Amino acid sequence: DQQVKQNSPSLSVQEGRISILNCDYTNSMFDYFLWYKKYPAEGPTFLISISSIKDKNEDGRFTVFLNKSAKHLSLHIVPSQPGDSAVYFCAASSNSGTYKYIFGTGTRLKVLA
Amino acid sequence: NAGVTQTPKFQVLKTGQSMTLQCAQDMNHNSMYWYRQDPGMGLRLIYYSASEGTTDKGEVPNGYNVSRLNKREFSLRLESAAPSQTSVYFCASKRGSRGEGEQYFGPGTRLTVT
Asked: Is-contact B31 B58, C-beta < 8 A?
C-alpha cells in the first residue's frame, strides 16, 4: 500500500515557466513533509519542507503548498531553469511515529531551454 | 566536511555471496538510515538507527542486517545475496532522533547480483 503517491512519472516544462509537481498521501498521521531533488548517479538532496501547522512554505524559487483536507501537497518552481531538470521525490513522516520517512516514487522533471 | 560517505560505489556479486556496505557521516548526526532505490519504486527504507546503539526494521528488511558501529558509522550486510537485491543503496543521516529535519544522503552504492 503506497502511503505517499506521485502519480505523474514525468513532466516537461519550458524554461522560465512554472513547474508544478504533485504528491498525495493517505496516512492522516503524517505531519511533516519534504521535497528532495535527485540528479543521476547522485544521492537525493533536500529542497524544502513543510510542517502540518502551515499551508505554505517558500524558499526562493521553490514553494511548497499543503492541503491537509485533501491530503495533497505540491511543489512550485518559478521560474523553471534547465538546471532544475532532475527527479523530485516527496516524503512524509509522523512526529508521533517511529521517525521513519516514507518516500513517493518520484517525478522526473525536464526543463526545456 | 565530507558529509555522508559510502563504500563501495559499485559492486557485482554472485548469488549466495555476502558483502557489507559501509556508511559514515561526519556531521555528528544521531539518526542513520539505509534505503534502496528500484525503478518505479522510489526510495524504500531497509533499516534505520534512531540513535547510537539502536536499530529498527524499515519497510523491506528481509535479507539484510545492520550494525550501528558507533555514532559515525552504520553498515548494511547482505549475508546471502539474491538477484532481487540488485538495486542502488543509499545511506542517509539526520541530526535529530525524532520529528522534523532533513536527511542528508550519501552518493549511493550500485549493487548487481548475478
From this structure: no
